[in-house]
Amino acid sequence: MSDNQLAVDVVRGEMQPWSDYSGKRGAVQGPVLRALLADVLPDGARTLILGPHGADLIEAVVAKASETTLLVRSVSDATELTEQFADKLQVVAGALDGLAGADRPPFDVVVAADGLDRVLGYDSDDLNWAQRLDALAAVAAPGAVVVLGLENEFSLTNLLDRRPADERHADDEWRPLHDDPTRPVSTEQLKAELARVGFENASAYAAFSVEEAPFALVTAEVAAAARPGQLPARLAVEALEAAAVAVPLLAPIAEGAESAARAGLLGATPSGWIAVAGAAVGHGVYAKTPGHTAVLTADAAEAGWTVAVDAAPAEASGLLQFDAAAVPASVPGGVTAETLLFRLAAAEDVPGFRDFAARLGDWARSQTGSRTLVRWDDVVVDGDSFAFGVSGWQTVAEESDKDLLSAAWARFHDRLIGAHRRHPWPPWMIGDDLVSALVAMSGIEAPAPVAATAADTPSAAVAYVARGKELAAALAGVLGIPSDASQTPDVRTALAEAERAKKESVELAGQIFGLERTLGFRDKALKTRETRIREMRTQVTKANAERTRLRNSKAYSAVKLIRKAAMIRNPRKFAGKVKRKVNRQLRNKLG
Protein backbone atom coordinates (compact mmCIF):
# COMPACT_ATOMS: atom_id res chain seq x y z
CA MET A 1 0.00 0.00 0.00
CA SER A 2 1.10 3.57 -0.58
CA ASP A 3 1.60 6.13 2.17
CA ASN A 4 -1.68 7.87 1.47
CA GLN A 5 -3.49 4.54 1.85
CA LEU A 6 -2.08 4.14 5.35
CA ALA A 7 -4.01 7.21 6.47
CA VAL A 8 -7.36 6.62 8.18
CA ASP A 9 -10.27 6.67 5.77
CA VAL A 10 -13.37 8.41 7.16
CA VAL A 11 -17.03 7.87 6.24
CA ARG A 12 -20.17 9.40 7.72
CA GLY A 13 -20.83 8.56 11.36
CA GLU A 14 -17.31 8.77 12.82
CA MET A 15 -17.10 9.46 16.56
CA GLN A 16 -14.50 11.42 18.46
CA PRO A 17 -13.52 11.42 21.24
CA TRP A 18 -14.60 7.83 21.73
CA SER A 19 -13.17 4.34 22.12
CA ASP A 20 -14.76 0.92 21.81
CA TYR A 21 -11.59 -0.81 23.01
CA SER A 22 -11.77 0.49 26.56
CA GLY A 23 -14.41 0.85 29.21
CA LYS A 24 -16.94 -1.59 30.54
CA ARG A 25 -17.13 -3.65 27.37
CA GLY A 26 -14.01 -4.50 25.37
CA ALA A 27 -13.45 -5.96 21.93
CA VAL A 28 -14.42 -9.53 21.09
CA GLN A 29 -11.37 -11.79 21.07
CA GLY A 30 -10.01 -15.16 22.13
CA PRO A 31 -8.43 -18.33 20.73
CA VAL A 32 -11.75 -20.16 20.37
CA LEU A 33 -13.25 -17.64 17.97
CA ARG A 34 -9.92 -17.41 16.17
CA ALA A 35 -9.99 -21.18 15.58
CA LEU A 36 -13.56 -20.95 14.21
CA LEU A 37 -12.59 -18.15 11.79
CA ALA A 38 -9.59 -20.14 10.60
CA ASP A 39 -11.93 -23.03 9.71
CA VAL A 40 -14.84 -21.19 8.06
CA LEU A 41 -13.24 -18.23 6.26
CA PRO A 42 -12.19 -18.81 2.65
CA ASP A 43 -8.70 -18.03 1.39
CA GLY A 44 -7.93 -15.01 -0.76
CA ALA A 45 -11.22 -13.13 -0.30
CA ARG A 46 -11.88 -9.43 -0.02
CA THR A 47 -12.89 -9.10 3.63
CA LEU A 48 -14.58 -6.55 5.87
CA ILE A 49 -14.16 -6.64 9.66
CA LEU A 50 -17.15 -4.78 11.10
CA GLY A 51 -16.90 -3.35 14.60
CA PRO A 52 -14.31 -3.64 17.39
CA HIS A 53 -12.36 -6.92 17.27
CA GLY A 54 -9.29 -7.98 19.18
CA ALA A 55 -5.85 -7.95 17.60
CA ASP A 56 -5.72 -11.76 17.55
CA LEU A 57 -8.92 -11.97 15.48
CA ILE A 58 -7.74 -9.25 13.10
CA GLU A 59 -4.51 -11.17 12.55
CA ALA A 60 -6.47 -14.38 11.85
CA VAL A 61 -8.69 -12.65 9.28
CA VAL A 62 -5.77 -10.90 7.59
CA ALA A 63 -3.94 -14.23 7.28
CA LYS A 64 -6.85 -15.67 5.28
CA ALA A 65 -7.86 -12.63 3.19
CA SER A 66 -6.32 -11.06 0.11
CA GLU A 67 -7.50 -7.58 1.11
CA THR A 68 -8.91 -6.55 4.50
CA THR A 69 -10.87 -3.48 5.56
CA LEU A 70 -11.63 -2.75 9.20
CA LEU A 71 -14.54 -0.44 10.09
CA VAL A 72 -14.64 1.14 13.56
CA ARG A 73 -16.66 4.19 14.48
CA SER A 74 -13.97 5.84 16.62
CA VAL A 75 -11.34 7.97 14.89
CA SER A 76 -8.89 7.46 17.77
CA ASP A 77 -9.37 3.67 17.60
CA ALA A 78 -8.87 3.77 13.83
CA THR A 79 -5.65 5.75 14.21
CA GLU A 80 -4.21 3.31 16.75
CA LEU A 81 -5.17 0.29 14.63
CA THR A 82 -3.56 1.85 11.58
CA GLU A 83 -0.33 2.30 13.49
CA GLN A 84 -0.55 -1.22 14.94
CA PHE A 85 -1.16 -3.11 11.71
CA ALA A 86 0.71 -0.78 9.35
CA ASP A 87 0.19 -1.99 5.75
CA LYS A 88 -1.73 -5.18 6.63
CA LEU A 89 -5.23 -3.68 6.25
CA GLN A 90 -7.17 -0.50 5.52
CA VAL A 91 -8.87 1.06 8.56
CA VAL A 92 -12.06 3.09 8.07
CA ALA A 93 -13.58 5.32 10.76
CA GLY A 94 -17.33 5.75 10.63
CA ALA A 95 -20.69 4.04 10.93
CA LEU A 96 -22.11 1.08 9.03
CA ASP A 97 -24.76 3.17 7.30
CA GLY A 98 -22.04 5.59 6.22
CA LEU A 99 -20.01 2.74 4.71
CA ALA A 100 -23.12 1.38 2.97
CA GLY A 101 -23.72 4.77 1.39
CA ALA A 102 -20.15 5.09 0.12
CA ASP A 103 -19.22 4.02 -3.38
CA ARG A 104 -17.21 0.87 -2.58
CA PRO A 105 -17.14 -2.57 -4.19
CA PRO A 106 -18.93 -5.27 -2.16
CA PHE A 107 -17.01 -7.57 0.16
CA ASP A 108 -16.78 -11.34 -0.26
CA VAL A 109 -16.47 -11.91 3.50
CA VAL A 110 -17.96 -9.89 6.37
CA VAL A 111 -16.79 -10.64 9.91
CA ALA A 112 -19.03 -9.01 12.54
CA ALA A 113 -18.42 -11.28 15.51
CA ASP A 114 -19.03 -8.36 17.87
CA GLY A 115 -22.58 -8.03 16.55
CA LEU A 116 -24.44 -4.97 15.33
CA ASP A 117 -24.70 -3.07 18.61
CA ARG A 118 -21.64 -0.86 18.16
CA VAL A 119 -21.75 0.09 14.48
CA LEU A 120 -23.61 3.46 14.56
CA GLY A 121 -22.36 6.93 15.42
CA TYR A 122 -23.62 10.37 16.42
CA ASP A 123 -24.84 11.25 12.92
CA SER A 124 -26.33 7.87 12.06
CA ASP A 125 -30.00 7.29 11.56
CA ASP A 126 -31.82 5.56 14.40
CA LEU A 127 -31.68 2.10 12.81
CA ASN A 128 -33.12 -0.92 14.54
CA TRP A 129 -31.40 -4.32 14.40
CA ALA A 130 -33.14 -5.44 11.19
CA GLN A 131 -32.21 -2.20 9.43
CA ARG A 132 -28.60 -2.59 10.52
CA LEU A 133 -28.62 -6.08 9.03
CA ASP A 134 -29.95 -4.59 5.80
CA ALA A 135 -27.02 -2.18 5.81
CA LEU A 136 -24.62 -5.09 6.35
CA ALA A 137 -26.17 -6.95 3.42
CA ALA A 138 -25.73 -3.82 1.28
CA VAL A 139 -21.93 -3.96 1.63
CA ALA A 140 -21.69 -7.74 1.09
CA ALA A 141 -21.50 -9.46 -2.28
CA PRO A 142 -24.11 -12.07 -3.27
CA GLY A 143 -23.21 -15.38 -1.68
CA ALA A 144 -20.74 -13.76 0.69
CA VAL A 145 -19.47 -15.51 3.80
CA VAL A 146 -20.85 -13.74 6.88
CA VAL A 147 -19.83 -14.31 10.52
CA LEU A 148 -22.30 -12.43 12.72
CA GLY A 149 -22.46 -12.25 16.49
CA LEU A 150 -25.58 -11.64 18.55
CA GLU A 151 -25.85 -11.03 22.29
CA ASN A 152 -28.44 -13.17 24.07
CA GLU A 153 -30.62 -11.24 26.48
CA PHE A 154 -31.98 -14.56 27.77
CA SER A 155 -28.54 -15.78 28.82
CA LEU A 156 -28.17 -17.28 32.27
CA THR A 157 -25.51 -14.76 33.23
CA ASN A 158 -27.91 -11.93 32.34
CA LEU A 159 -30.98 -13.49 33.99
CA LEU A 160 -29.11 -14.30 37.22
CA ASP A 161 -27.16 -11.03 37.34
CA ARG A 162 -28.42 -9.25 40.44
CA ARG A 163 -27.44 -5.80 39.16
CA PRO A 164 -30.20 -3.62 37.64
CA ALA A 165 -30.34 -3.08 33.90
CA ASP A 166 -28.74 0.36 34.01
CA GLU A 167 -25.66 -1.13 35.69
CA ARG A 168 -25.42 -4.21 33.47
CA HIS A 169 -25.25 -2.22 30.23
CA ALA A 170 -22.93 0.70 29.63
CA ASP A 171 -23.36 3.38 26.96
CA ASP A 172 -20.96 1.60 24.59
CA GLU A 173 -23.79 0.72 22.21
CA TRP A 174 -24.77 4.41 21.86
CA ARG A 175 -28.19 3.36 20.63
CA PRO A 176 -28.96 0.19 22.64
CA LEU A 177 -30.87 -2.69 21.10
CA HIS A 178 -31.83 -4.48 24.29
CA ASP A 179 -35.51 -3.58 23.91
CA ASP A 180 -35.60 -3.68 20.09
CA PRO A 181 -38.51 -5.92 18.99
CA THR A 182 -36.76 -6.70 15.66
CA ARG A 183 -33.71 -8.12 17.38
CA PRO A 184 -33.58 -11.95 17.18
CA VAL A 185 -33.78 -13.81 20.46
CA SER A 186 -33.09 -17.36 19.27
CA THR A 187 -30.98 -19.19 16.73
CA GLU A 188 -34.00 -19.85 14.53
CA GLN A 189 -34.92 -16.17 14.42
CA LEU A 190 -31.29 -15.25 13.70
CA LYS A 191 -31.06 -17.68 10.78
CA ALA A 192 -34.44 -16.48 9.48
CA GLU A 193 -33.23 -12.87 9.49
CA LEU A 194 -30.07 -13.85 7.63
CA ALA A 195 -32.15 -15.72 5.06
CA ARG A 196 -34.34 -12.64 4.63
CA VAL A 197 -31.39 -10.59 3.36
CA GLY A 198 -30.04 -13.36 1.14
CA PHE A 199 -27.72 -15.34 3.44
CA GLU A 200 -29.23 -18.81 3.10
CA ASN A 201 -28.41 -22.02 5.00
CA ALA A 202 -26.73 -20.29 7.91
CA SER A 203 -25.53 -22.28 10.92
CA ALA A 204 -25.36 -20.98 14.46
CA TYR A 205 -23.05 -21.59 17.38
CA ALA A 206 -24.00 -21.06 21.01
CA ALA A 207 -21.23 -18.89 22.45
CA PHE A 208 -20.54 -19.40 26.15
CA SER A 209 -18.23 -16.46 26.80
CA VAL A 210 -16.01 -15.25 29.61
CA GLU A 211 -16.22 -11.47 29.32
CA GLU A 212 -15.59 -10.76 25.59
CA ALA A 213 -13.81 -14.04 24.81
CA PRO A 214 -15.89 -17.12 23.90
CA PHE A 215 -14.89 -20.02 26.15
CA ALA A 216 -16.92 -22.61 24.24
CA LEU A 217 -18.73 -22.59 20.89
CA VAL A 218 -21.30 -25.34 20.42
CA THR A 219 -23.49 -25.77 17.36
CA ALA A 220 -27.19 -25.28 17.99
CA GLU A 221 -27.93 -28.91 17.16
CA VAL A 222 -25.27 -30.25 19.52
CA ALA A 223 -26.37 -27.89 22.29
CA ALA A 224 -30.00 -28.98 21.94
CA ALA A 225 -28.99 -32.64 22.26
CA ALA A 226 -26.56 -32.14 25.16
CA ARG A 227 -27.60 -33.49 28.53
CA PRO A 228 -26.08 -32.93 32.00
CA GLY A 229 -22.73 -34.63 32.37
CA GLN A 230 -22.07 -35.01 28.64
CA LEU A 231 -19.09 -33.30 26.98
CA PRO A 232 -20.84 -30.23 25.45
CA ALA A 233 -22.80 -29.58 28.65
CA ARG A 234 -19.65 -29.93 30.78
CA LEU A 235 -17.75 -27.42 28.68
CA ALA A 236 -20.70 -25.02 28.73
CA VAL A 237 -21.05 -25.26 32.52
CA GLU A 238 -17.33 -24.66 32.99
CA ALA A 239 -17.59 -21.58 30.77
CA LEU A 240 -20.57 -20.24 32.69
CA GLU A 241 -18.88 -20.86 36.05
CA ALA A 242 -15.77 -19.03 34.85
CA ALA A 243 -17.88 -16.14 33.53
CA ALA A 244 -19.86 -15.93 36.77
CA VAL A 245 -16.74 -15.15 38.80
CA ALA A 246 -16.94 -11.48 37.78
CA VAL A 247 -20.76 -11.26 37.90
CA PRO A 248 -22.76 -10.88 41.14
CA LEU A 249 -25.40 -13.59 40.88
CA LEU A 250 -28.82 -14.29 42.31
CA ALA A 251 -28.36 -18.07 42.30
CA PRO A 252 -25.69 -20.65 41.36
CA ILE A 253 -25.32 -20.62 37.59
CA ALA A 254 -24.30 -24.28 37.21
CA GLU A 255 -27.63 -25.43 38.61
CA GLY A 256 -29.54 -23.42 36.00
CA ALA A 257 -27.30 -24.64 33.17
CA GLU A 258 -27.81 -28.28 34.13
CA SER A 259 -31.57 -27.77 34.34
CA ALA A 260 -31.54 -26.18 30.89
CA ALA A 261 -29.51 -29.08 29.50
CA ARG A 262 -31.91 -31.58 31.04
CA ALA A 263 -34.77 -29.81 29.22
CA GLY A 264 -32.84 -29.65 25.94
CA LEU A 265 -32.62 -25.84 26.17
CA LEU A 266 -28.89 -25.39 26.69
CA GLY A 267 -28.61 -23.66 23.32
CA ALA A 268 -31.11 -21.01 24.46
CA THR A 269 -29.08 -19.85 27.47
CA PRO A 270 -25.55 -18.93 26.25
CA SER A 271 -23.99 -15.49 26.41
CA GLY A 272 -24.70 -15.08 22.70
CA TRP A 273 -24.61 -16.73 19.30
CA ILE A 274 -22.23 -16.73 16.36
CA ALA A 275 -23.95 -17.28 13.00
CA VAL A 276 -21.97 -18.46 9.97
CA ALA A 277 -23.55 -18.07 6.51
CA GLY A 278 -22.12 -19.03 3.12
CA ALA A 279 -19.50 -21.45 4.50
CA ALA A 280 -19.36 -25.07 5.56
CA VAL A 281 -19.95 -25.76 9.23
CA GLY A 282 -16.78 -26.24 11.26
CA HIS A 283 -16.40 -28.59 14.18
CA GLY A 284 -19.34 -29.33 16.45
CA VAL A 285 -17.55 -27.97 19.52
CA TYR A 286 -14.77 -25.42 19.95
CA ALA A 287 -13.54 -24.83 23.48
CA LYS A 288 -10.59 -23.37 25.30
CA THR A 289 -9.00 -26.08 27.38
CA PRO A 290 -9.70 -25.11 31.00
CA GLY A 291 -6.71 -23.36 32.51
CA HIS A 292 -4.78 -23.18 29.24
CA THR A 293 -4.86 -21.29 25.96
CA ALA A 294 -4.97 -24.42 23.80
CA VAL A 295 -8.16 -24.92 21.77
CA LEU A 296 -10.04 -28.19 21.86
CA THR A 297 -12.30 -29.26 18.99
CA ALA A 298 -14.77 -32.11 19.15
CA ASP A 299 -17.12 -33.78 16.69
CA ALA A 300 -19.85 -36.30 17.37
CA ALA A 301 -18.94 -39.89 16.51
CA GLU A 302 -20.71 -43.19 16.82
CA ALA A 303 -19.07 -44.11 20.12
CA GLY A 304 -18.93 -40.60 21.55
CA TRP A 305 -16.64 -37.74 20.50
CA THR A 306 -13.51 -37.42 18.42
CA VAL A 307 -11.29 -34.85 20.09
CA ALA A 308 -8.29 -32.84 18.94
CA VAL A 309 -6.19 -30.22 20.70
CA ASP A 310 -4.03 -27.78 18.80
CA ALA A 311 -0.29 -28.07 19.37
CA ALA A 312 0.51 -26.73 22.81
CA PRO A 313 3.79 -27.30 24.66
CA ALA A 314 3.76 -28.79 28.13
CA GLU A 315 3.46 -26.01 30.67
CA ALA A 316 4.00 -26.40 34.40
CA SER A 317 2.03 -24.45 36.97
CA GLY A 318 3.05 -25.28 40.50
CA LEU A 319 2.09 -28.85 41.32
CA LEU A 320 0.48 -29.43 37.91
CA GLN A 321 1.42 -29.21 34.24
CA PHE A 322 -0.71 -29.11 31.09
CA ASP A 323 0.09 -31.64 28.36
CA ALA A 324 -2.04 -31.69 25.22
CA ALA A 325 -0.79 -35.21 24.48
CA ALA A 326 -2.63 -36.41 27.59
CA VAL A 327 -6.02 -35.58 26.03
CA PRO A 328 -7.40 -38.75 24.40
CA ALA A 329 -8.30 -38.75 20.72
CA SER A 330 -11.76 -40.10 21.49
CA VAL A 331 -13.99 -39.65 24.50
CA PRO A 332 -17.08 -41.77 25.33
CA GLY A 333 -20.42 -40.06 24.99
CA GLY A 334 -21.58 -40.99 28.49
CA VAL A 335 -21.97 -38.81 31.52
CA THR A 336 -19.30 -38.10 34.11
CA ALA A 337 -18.79 -40.10 37.25
CA GLU A 338 -19.53 -36.97 39.27
CA THR A 339 -23.01 -36.73 37.73
CA LEU A 340 -23.89 -40.24 38.92
CA LEU A 341 -22.31 -39.62 42.34
CA PHE A 342 -24.44 -36.50 42.76
CA ARG A 343 -27.56 -38.47 41.84
CA LEU A 344 -26.75 -41.28 44.29
CA ALA A 345 -26.00 -38.77 47.05
CA ALA A 346 -29.24 -36.87 46.40
CA ALA A 347 -31.20 -40.14 46.51
CA GLU A 348 -29.42 -41.02 49.79
CA ASP A 349 -28.50 -44.37 48.25
CA VAL A 350 -25.52 -45.08 50.50
CA PRO A 351 -25.02 -48.74 49.38
CA GLY A 352 -25.14 -47.69 45.72
CA PHE A 353 -22.76 -44.80 46.39
CA ARG A 354 -20.30 -47.09 48.17
CA ASP A 355 -20.40 -49.63 45.37
CA PHE A 356 -19.86 -46.96 42.71
CA ALA A 357 -17.03 -45.38 44.72
CA ALA A 358 -15.34 -48.79 45.03
CA ARG A 359 -15.53 -49.26 41.24
CA LEU A 360 -14.01 -45.82 40.73
CA GLY A 361 -11.20 -46.66 43.14
CA ASP A 362 -10.42 -49.93 41.35
CA TRP A 363 -10.32 -48.15 37.98
CA ALA A 364 -8.12 -45.32 39.27
CA ARG A 365 -5.59 -47.76 40.74
CA SER A 366 -5.48 -49.65 37.45
CA GLN A 367 -4.19 -46.54 35.61
CA THR A 368 -0.58 -47.34 36.39
CA GLY A 369 1.98 -44.96 34.96
CA SER A 370 -0.56 -42.19 34.28
CA ARG A 371 0.07 -38.78 35.82
CA THR A 372 -3.26 -37.33 34.68
CA LEU A 373 -4.95 -35.81 37.68
CA VAL A 374 -8.07 -37.78 38.51
CA ARG A 375 -11.19 -35.62 38.71
CA TRP A 376 -14.63 -37.20 38.81
CA ASP A 377 -16.13 -34.27 36.85
CA ASP A 378 -13.97 -35.31 33.87
CA VAL A 379 -13.94 -39.11 34.24
CA VAL A 380 -16.56 -40.49 31.84
CA VAL A 381 -18.64 -43.61 32.40
CA ASP A 382 -17.86 -46.06 29.58
CA GLY A 383 -20.15 -49.06 29.96
CA ASP A 384 -18.94 -51.06 32.96
CA SER A 385 -15.68 -49.13 33.08
CA PHE A 386 -14.50 -45.54 32.98
CA ALA A 387 -12.32 -43.32 30.77
CA PHE A 388 -10.44 -40.06 31.10
CA GLY A 389 -12.13 -36.99 29.63
CA VAL A 390 -10.59 -33.95 27.96
CA SER A 391 -8.58 -32.60 30.90
CA GLY A 392 -4.88 -32.43 30.07
CA TRP A 393 -3.66 -31.51 33.54
CA GLN A 394 -1.10 -33.85 35.06
CA THR A 395 0.91 -33.91 38.25
CA VAL A 396 4.51 -32.73 38.01
CA ALA A 397 5.79 -35.28 40.52
CA GLU A 398 4.91 -38.92 41.01
CA GLU A 399 1.91 -39.19 43.29
CA SER A 400 0.64 -42.25 45.11
CA ASP A 401 -2.79 -43.80 44.61
CA LYS A 402 -3.84 -42.38 47.96
CA ASP A 403 -2.85 -38.84 46.95
CA LEU A 404 -4.61 -39.00 43.55
CA LEU A 405 -7.81 -40.48 44.98
CA SER A 406 -7.74 -37.97 47.83
CA ALA A 407 -7.43 -35.14 45.29
CA ALA A 408 -10.42 -36.48 43.34
CA TRP A 409 -12.55 -36.83 46.47
CA ALA A 410 -11.42 -33.46 47.87
CA ARG A 411 -12.60 -31.77 44.64
CA PHE A 412 -15.85 -33.75 44.79
CA HIS A 413 -16.33 -32.70 48.42
CA ASP A 414 -15.89 -29.02 47.54
CA ARG A 415 -18.35 -29.24 44.64
CA LEU A 416 -20.87 -31.22 46.72
CA ILE A 417 -20.77 -29.24 49.95
CA GLY A 418 -19.94 -25.90 48.33
CA ALA A 419 -23.04 -26.15 46.11
CA HIS A 420 -25.23 -27.12 49.11
CA ARG A 421 -26.31 -30.31 47.37
CA ARG A 422 -28.37 -32.91 49.17
CA HIS A 423 -26.37 -35.83 50.56
CA PRO A 424 -26.87 -38.68 53.06
CA TRP A 425 -24.14 -37.74 55.55
CA PRO A 426 -24.67 -35.84 58.80
CA PRO A 427 -24.20 -32.08 58.46
CA TRP A 428 -21.30 -32.13 60.92
CA MET A 429 -19.41 -34.75 58.85
CA ILE A 430 -17.60 -32.40 56.47
CA GLY A 431 -14.04 -31.52 55.64
CA ASP A 432 -11.26 -34.01 56.22
CA ASP A 433 -13.56 -36.49 57.96
CA LEU A 434 -15.84 -36.81 54.93
CA VAL A 435 -12.91 -36.90 52.47
CA SER A 436 -11.30 -39.68 54.52
CA ALA A 437 -14.56 -41.62 54.49
CA LEU A 438 -14.89 -41.21 50.70
CA VAL A 439 -11.30 -42.34 50.15
CA ALA A 440 -11.99 -45.39 52.30
CA MET A 441 -15.08 -46.16 50.18
CA SER A 442 -12.88 -46.26 47.08
CA GLY A 443 -10.71 -48.99 48.56
CA ILE A 444 -7.95 -47.13 50.40
CA GLU A 445 -8.09 -48.49 53.91
CA ALA A 446 -7.29 -45.96 56.58
CA PRO A 447 -4.30 -46.75 58.85
CA ALA A 448 -5.05 -48.42 62.14
CA PRO A 449 -5.94 -45.83 64.78
CA VAL A 450 -3.36 -45.13 67.47
CA ALA A 451 -3.84 -43.93 70.99
CA ALA A 452 -4.24 -40.18 71.11
CA THR A 453 -1.62 -38.32 73.09
CA ALA A 454 -3.58 -35.09 73.09
CA ALA A 455 -7.08 -33.87 72.38
CA ASP A 456 -5.99 -32.35 69.04
CA THR A 457 -3.96 -35.32 67.77
CA PRO A 458 -4.54 -35.58 63.97
CA SER A 459 -5.92 -38.76 62.45
CA ALA A 460 -3.61 -41.24 60.72
CA ALA A 461 -5.16 -40.34 57.34
CA VAL A 462 -4.32 -36.66 57.58
CA ALA A 463 -1.15 -36.94 55.45
CA TYR A 464 -2.65 -38.12 52.16
CA VAL A 465 -5.85 -36.12 52.70
CA ALA A 466 -3.76 -32.96 53.08
CA ARG A 467 -1.82 -33.80 49.89
CA GLY A 468 -5.06 -34.44 48.01
CA LYS A 469 -6.42 -31.07 49.13
CA GLU A 470 -3.26 -29.37 47.85
CA LEU A 471 -3.65 -30.99 44.42
CA ALA A 472 -7.36 -30.11 44.28
CA ALA A 473 -6.61 -26.51 45.24
CA ALA A 474 -3.89 -26.34 42.56
CA LEU A 475 -6.37 -27.58 39.94
CA ALA A 476 -8.98 -25.01 41.02
CA GLY A 477 -6.33 -22.33 40.70
CA VAL A 478 -5.25 -23.20 37.16
CA LEU A 479 -8.87 -23.55 36.01
CA GLY A 480 -9.50 -19.95 37.01
CA ILE A 481 -12.52 -20.73 39.17
CA PRO A 482 -11.74 -19.72 42.79
CA SER A 483 -13.04 -21.60 45.76
CA ASP A 484 -16.31 -20.58 47.40
CA ALA A 485 -14.45 -18.91 50.26
CA SER A 486 -12.63 -16.49 47.95
CA GLN A 487 -15.45 -15.29 45.73
CA THR A 488 -18.59 -13.30 46.39
CA PRO A 489 -21.45 -15.78 46.96
CA ASP A 490 -24.70 -15.57 45.07
CA VAL A 491 -27.77 -14.19 46.79
CA ARG A 492 -29.35 -17.59 47.35
CA THR A 493 -26.21 -18.91 49.04
CA ALA A 494 -25.83 -15.71 51.03
CA LEU A 495 -29.43 -15.94 52.26
CA ALA A 496 -28.98 -19.62 53.15
CA GLU A 497 -25.79 -18.81 55.03
CA ALA A 498 -27.53 -15.93 56.81
CA GLU A 499 -30.44 -18.18 57.81
CA ARG A 500 -28.05 -20.83 59.06
CA ALA A 501 -26.06 -18.20 60.96
CA LYS A 502 -29.32 -16.92 62.47
CA LYS A 503 -30.27 -20.43 63.57
CA GLU A 504 -26.83 -21.01 65.03
CA SER A 505 -26.99 -17.69 66.88
CA VAL A 506 -30.35 -18.66 68.41
CA GLU A 507 -28.95 -22.04 69.44
CA LEU A 508 -25.84 -20.43 70.90
CA ALA A 509 -27.98 -17.88 72.72
CA GLY A 510 -29.95 -20.75 74.26
CA GLN A 511 -26.74 -22.47 75.30
CA ILE A 512 -25.42 -19.24 76.78
CA PHE A 513 -28.69 -18.72 78.69
CA GLY A 514 -28.47 -22.26 80.06
CA LEU A 515 -24.86 -21.78 81.08
CA GLU A 516 -25.72 -18.46 82.72
CA ARG A 517 -28.52 -20.11 84.72
CA THR A 518 -26.18 -22.93 85.74
CA LEU A 519 -23.53 -20.44 86.76
CA GLY A 520 -26.14 -18.49 88.73
CA PHE A 521 -27.27 -21.63 90.59
CA ARG A 522 -23.68 -22.56 91.30
CA ASP A 523 -22.91 -19.04 92.50
CA LYS A 524 -25.84 -19.19 94.89
CA ALA A 525 -24.73 -22.61 96.11
CA LEU A 526 -21.21 -21.29 96.67
CA LYS A 527 -22.54 -18.30 98.61
CA THR A 528 -24.71 -20.59 100.77
CA ARG A 529 -21.74 -22.85 101.45
CA GLU A 530 -19.55 -19.86 102.25
CA THR A 531 -22.15 -18.58 104.73
CA ARG A 532 -22.38 -22.02 106.35
CA ILE A 533 -18.61 -22.24 106.63
CA ARG A 534 -18.48 -18.84 108.31
CA GLU A 535 -21.18 -19.89 110.78
CA MET A 536 -19.30 -23.08 111.57
CA ARG A 537 -16.08 -21.12 112.08
CA THR A 538 -17.89 -18.83 114.57
CA GLN A 539 -19.26 -21.85 116.42
CA VAL A 540 -15.83 -23.47 116.53
CA THR A 541 -14.31 -20.26 117.90
CA LYS A 542 -16.94 -20.06 120.63
CA ALA A 543 -16.45 -23.72 121.49
CA ASN A 544 -12.69 -23.24 121.75
CA ALA A 545 -13.17 -20.24 124.07
CA GLU A 546 -15.54 -22.21 126.32
CA ARG A 547 -13.11 -25.09 126.40
CA THR A 548 -10.25 -22.78 127.39
CA ARG A 549 -12.28 -21.24 130.25
CA LEU A 550 -13.27 -24.69 131.41
CA ARG A 551 -9.68 -25.90 131.49
CA ASN A 552 -8.60 -22.86 133.52
CA SER A 553 -11.34 -23.21 136.19
CA LYS A 554 -10.79 -24.67 139.72
CA ALA A 555 -13.61 -27.06 139.23
CA TYR A 556 -11.86 -28.53 136.17
CA SER A 557 -8.64 -28.85 138.27
CA ALA A 558 -10.53 -30.57 141.07
CA VAL A 559 -12.26 -32.87 138.66
CA LYS A 560 -8.97 -33.63 137.02
CA LEU A 561 -7.42 -34.39 140.43
CA ILE A 562 -10.34 -36.54 141.42
CA ARG A 563 -10.13 -38.35 138.08
CA LYS A 564 -6.49 -39.06 138.66
CA ALA A 565 -7.19 -40.20 142.22
CA ALA A 566 -9.91 -42.46 140.98
CA MET A 567 -7.43 -44.08 138.69
CA ILE A 568 -5.14 -45.12 141.65
CA ARG A 569 -5.20 -48.92 141.86
CA ASN A 570 -3.09 -49.37 145.15
CA PRO A 571 -3.92 -46.64 147.65
CA ARG A 572 -1.42 -47.85 150.36
CA LYS A 573 1.45 -47.89 147.93
CA PHE A 574 0.43 -44.47 146.66
CA ALA A 575 0.15 -43.15 150.25
CA GLY A 576 3.68 -44.41 151.01
CA LYS A 577 5.04 -42.67 147.98
CA VAL A 578 3.29 -39.44 148.94
CA LYS A 579 4.63 -39.71 152.47
CA ARG A 580 8.20 -40.21 151.29
CA LYS A 581 7.91 -37.33 148.88
CA VAL A 582 6.57 -35.01 151.60
CA ASN A 583 9.33 -36.01 154.01
CA ARG A 584 11.94 -35.39 151.34
CA GLN A 585 10.61 -31.94 150.65
CA LEU A 586 10.52 -31.13 154.40
CA ARG A 587 14.10 -32.21 154.87
CA ASN A 588 15.16 -30.10 151.99
CA LYS A 589 13.47 -27.08 153.48
CA LEU A 590 14.85 -27.69 157.05
CA GLY A 591 18.29 -28.70 156.13
Automatic annotation (TrEMBL):
The keyword Coiled coil applies. SUPFAM superfamilies: S-adenosyl-L-methionine-dependent methyltransferases. Keywords: Coiled coil. InterPro entries: SAM-dependent_MTases_sf (IPR029063). It comes from the Bacteria. Residues 526-553 form a coiled coil. This is Class I SAM-dependent methyltransferase.
